[in-house]
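Researcher: Quick test of sequence recovery. C-alpha cells follow.
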C-alpha cells in the first residue's frame, strides 16, 4: 500500500467516523428534545383551548 492510498484511507475513515458520531449525537440529544418540546407545546395548546372555552 502506497502512502497516497493510506492517506486517502485515513481521510475516508475520518469523515466516516465524524459522520457516525454526529448521527449518534443527533439521535440521542436533538431528537428527544424535539419530541419533548412538541409534546409540551401540544399540552399547552390543549390547555389554552380549554381555558378559552370556559
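Model:
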Amino acid at each position: 500500500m502506497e502512502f497516497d492510498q493510506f492517506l486517502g484511507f485515513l481521510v475516508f475513515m475520518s469523515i466516516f467516523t465524524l459522520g457516525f458520531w454526529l448521527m449518534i449525537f443527533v439521535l440521542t440529544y436533538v431528537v428527544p428534545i424535539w419530541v419533548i418540546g412538541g409534546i409540551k407545546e401540544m399540552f399547552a395548546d390543549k390547555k389554552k383551548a380549554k381555558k378559552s372555552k370556559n
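Residues 6 and 44 are 56 Å apart (CA to CA).
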